Amino acid sequence: MSLLYSLACGGLLLLAFLLNTNALRVNRLANRWLGIFLGCVGCVLLGRVLPGTPVAAQYPSLPGWLELTRLAMGPAFYLSVVQFTAPSRPWQWRDTLHFLPWLLFLLVMLPSLLGWGPAGVARLPSGTAAVGRVLVFATPKVQAIGYWLAAYLALRQHQRHVLQLTAQPEPIDLQWLKQVLWGLALLVGLWLNELFFHLGWVLALTPAGYLGAVFYLAYYALRQPEVFAFPAPVRAEIQELWQPESPALPDPAPSSPKQARLSPSQVAYWQQRLNQLLETEKVYLEADLSLPALAQRAGLSTHELSYVLNEGFGVNFFQFINAYRVAEAQRLLASAQHQHLSLVGIAFEAGFSSKTTFNTTFKKVTGLTPSQFLQQVRAG
User: Fold this and answer.
1) Residues 6+ apart with CB under 8 A from 350
2) Are 20 and 32 spatial neighbours (Cβ–Cβ below 8 Å)?
3) How far apart are CA 333 and CA 362, in angstroms?
4) Which CATH number fits domain 318-380: 2.160.20, 3.40.50, 1.10.10, 2.30.30?
5) Per residue in 69-87, pLDDT tens?
């Protein structure tokens, strides 16, 4: 058992080191926070390995110092998800509030850890001390569940946002991070079972479960691509595009209506220009076409192009580009000259780089799968 925990602890600390040193050369700030999170988890597991060892006998306060990292885990992981999903986000002062419980716990435990006497909870009156012990026990559990849910919701929002940015969301939709999230759910579940449920067969598998979760996390974390591979000015534009508008405060004085980014006549002009660009130059055949790339080709800013798509066409970038690709795929499927191509070959020829996106989008636009459409063409 101790060997499995030791292997899991060493794996987590090594992975934390790789992410913090930016060994992958991608998503620097996000991986730094992810590395801090994994380092905290590694420290907690190290606290399980130390009891009964000469190191624990020589440094009796070390397990307490390691336990301090528990309340930093949730905030660190959540901030890593925030950075993964934000094209351009600086550190904000309110981010420090996430670590307030950790700071309070540190102040409570510091006298004991430094050998100045009992911990702060023990020095409180008996009734208050009991409440303090309940809070110290409950806070990490509430944090773990709360921050997991917050991270999950942030990922869901990101996966909706990327449809405004690309017609091929798979490389940047952070599906790998959602897999990491499920791996963490397994760790939290094992931990809660140890504390509350005590299911024997789960307890027997817990050390192997921790080690398996570490391999699971490492597999996905070490294969991650860069999420926002754009120059800094473009990332700032995307951040502004995704930033929700603050609700306006009631103003008793009448004010002029908010000016639109483009006038109706400008929107109509750019609609015509975009249609011409896609029909004549067929830029939708470029598999890596993105909102910033199309904006540059059209002579618009990223924000302006998004406004034209939303207000003029009533669609997002994903829907706009893939509608052209589906029409191209229909033409190719009906063409005698392309009968030698497989459905995947047709998808690539039409600009798709993902079979999944091709199948789901084709079905949504036409009401038929590509295979059904092909059968209909050959039958008719």
Assistant:
1) 285, 325, 326, 328, 329, 332, 358
2) yes
3) 12
4) 1.10.10
5) 999 999 999 999 999 999 8
Single pTM value for the model = 0.87
pLDDT of the residue at 123: 52
The amino acid that residue 322 corresponds to is N
Long-range contacts of 276-284 (CB under 8 A, 24+ apart): 278/324, 282/328, 284/167, 284/321, 284/324, 284/325, 284/328, 284/351
Listed in sequence order, the residues at least 6 apart from 197 whose beta carbon sits closer than 8 Å to its beta carbon are: none
Q: Which helix (DSSP H) or strand (DSSP E) does residue 329 occupy?
A: helix 317-333
Whole-number Å distance between alpha carbons of 369 and 105: 57
Q: Are 301 and 295 in contact (CB under 8 A)?
A: yes
Go through 345-369 and write b for each residue having 16 or more CB atoms within 10 A of its CB, e for each that does not: ebbbbbbbebeebbbebbeebbeee
Report the distance separating Cα 331 and Cα 285, nearest Å.
Answer: 13
DSSP for 340-380?
TS-HHHHHHHTT---HHHHHHHHHHHHSS-HHHHHHHHHH-
DSSP annotation of 229 = -
**In this structure, what token pair is assigned to residue 50?**
């130390």
Beta bridge partners of 290: 166
Cβ 267 vs Cβ 312: under 8 Å: yes
| Rounded Cα gap, residues 326 and 151, in angstroms | 34
Domain boundaries, the chain: 2-232, 259-314, 318-380
